[in-house]
Amino acid sequence: MIFGRGETQRLPVRTSTGQAQAIYLPTAAPGLGDSGVIIGREVYSGKGYIYDPFQLYGQQLPAPHWLVLGESGNGKSALEKTYVLRQLRFRDRQVVVLDAQGEDGVGEWNLIAEALGVKPIRLDPNDLSGDAVRLNPLDPAIAVTGQLALLRTIIEVAMGHALQERAGYALKAAHTHVMRTVSGRQPILPDIVEALRNPTPESCELLHLDVKDVRVWGLDVALVLDRLTDGDLKGMFEGPTTDGIDLDSPLIIFDLSHIDRNSIAMPILMAIVGVWLEHTWIRPDRVKRIFLVEEAWHIINSPFVAQLFQRLLKFGRRLGLSFVAVVHHLSDVVDGAAAKEASAILKMASTRTVYMQKADEARATGKVLGLPRWAVEIIPTLTPGIAVWDVNGNVQVVKHLITDTERPMVYTDRAMTEDAVEERVRAEAALADDPAA
User: Fold this and answer.
1) Is 355 helix (H, G, I), strand (E, B) or coil?
2) In angstroms, rounded to a whole number, what is the distance separating the alpha carbons of residues 174 and 195?
3) Which of the residues 5, 300, 331, 429 could staple to 342 if both were Cys, CB 3.0 to 4.6 A apart?
4) Three-state secondary structure call for residue 30
């Protein structure tokens, strides 16, 4: 044996699985720590899964932003709502939600708003009650440069192309004239439209331009803004900002459920809300803020709105802002008109949560996000409430858990009948009793 003339042999051992599990101890990847918001439990190890971008930022996370993906009906909405409810238990948290879905005339977050005593900011171009909420793009709370940038974004989104130099000059001249002449009240969009239709000689003298030329340059711009003041988008942006909007509330909900998700109004609205929040909501006051956007492809799929939000994300990161984007398919954004801007925003999202997707979509998602092969293979097999979490390379399969208190506020779909709720509760209970299920 010493000189290699013989070999040692290990006799086979016959044992039961009950004995083997004591001999070969199970192992599990380390979690994300024990400080933050509990999401649920890891499927394979059974450990509690805790996640908080503010606790992890700078150590395990290079950016606090989060992307949530998955087919409808697999638990994205329930995750969003319980995450917000649990974050609000911390005193230094504040959340803004853009609620783009709903039924029965209210948004999907209406039950949560009622439970917390919050009045949603409901934007509706068809409101005839006289109580419609308005957001003024020319609100004095927004810097003059921010107002002009917002006006350009609105026009570019509506026109579908970048603003030409001559039209841009006409807009700038009109904005400058309004800022200089309007006093005693908030400047409003109709003032800009009037200044575009009737440019003053003073706005043309600097470059020795003819008034008629400047009027022609600004005609298309005036027609676009006219939609917001006296057209199909009237009722949301043409007046002073509505009094009583509480920007210090722990939860602010913009109810966009009355707006056609496929109309040009949605990206325009996203742009106005984004800039308005940037200048009036995000402040260096050590409050950790969460900006959650449903139907986020309206943002990422428009080059002009995506550029605006890209700047907001970079700026907000210094002030404690976590941006949460919820989309159904990654192809909705990476194959769209704003592919370059979408890629930049996706790179900022260090946390990615992927619910069930079809095999082809899962492979495409895995390639773009750089998910490991094993994770890509199980995504099509995931059941509702279970998702693959990738937190800056730490990949786990997580079962989202919902408390009895949260359940009535989470399942708000009318199609979720009482029988269906009971069946789902029983299924979750069975899964909790048998992790192998």
Assistant:
1) coil
2) 5
3) 300
4) coil
| Global confidence as pTM | 0.80
Residues 6+ apart with CB under 8 A from 363: 376
Residues 432 and 437: their CA atoms lie apart, in Å, by: 9
Torsional sign, CA 283, 106, 227, 243: negative
Contacts with 96 (C-beta within 8 Å, 6 or more apart), sequence order: 252, 253, 254, 277, 281, 289, 290, 291, 292
DSSP secondary structure string, 134-191? ---TT-TTS-HHHHHHHHHHHHHHHHTSPPPHHHHHHHHHHHHHHHHH--SS---HHH
Which two structure tokens, joined as six digits, stand for 306?
């995506």
Rounded Cα distance, 35 and 38, in Å: 9
Q: What is the sign of the dihedral through the CA atoms of 334, 338, 340 and 344?
A: negative
- Give residues with Cβ within 8 angstroms of 262, minimum separation 6: none
Sequence-ordered strand ranges (E) for 43-156: 48-51, 65-69, 93-99, 102-103, 106-107, 121-122
Pick the CATH number of 37-115+249-433 from 3.40.50.360, 3.40.50.300, 3.40.190.10, 3.20.20.300: 3.40.50.300
Domain boundaries in the chain?
37-115+249-433, 144-230
Beta strands at 93-99 and 288-293: parallel, antiparallel or unpaired: parallel
In order along its 437 residues, the chain shows pLDDT tens digits of 444 555 556 677 777 777 766 665 566 667 787 888 999 999 988 889 999 999 898 778 888 999 999 888 899 999 999 999 999 999 899 999 988 876 666 788 989 999 999 988 888 877 766 567 888 889 888 888 889 988 988 888 888 788 899 999 999 999 999 999 999 999 999 999 999 999 888 878 777 788 888 899 999 999 989 888 877 678 788 889 888 788 888 999 988 888 877 777 778 888 878 877 877 787 788 889 999 988 777 666 677 777 777 877 877 777 788 999 888 877 766 666 666 777 777 778 899 999 999 999 999 899 888 999 999 999 999 999 999 999 999 999 999 999 999 998 887 554 444 444 454 555 455 545 554 44
The pair of three-digit structure tokens given for residue 317, joined into one six-digit string: 């990161």
Amino acid at 363: R
Counting Cα atoms < 13 Å in the Cβ hemisphere of 383 gives 7
Cβ(186)–Cβ(138) below 8 Å: yes
Burial of 149 per CB tally in 10 Å (0-12, 13-18, 19+): middle
The rounded distance, in Å, linking the Cα atoms of 206 and 97 is: 44
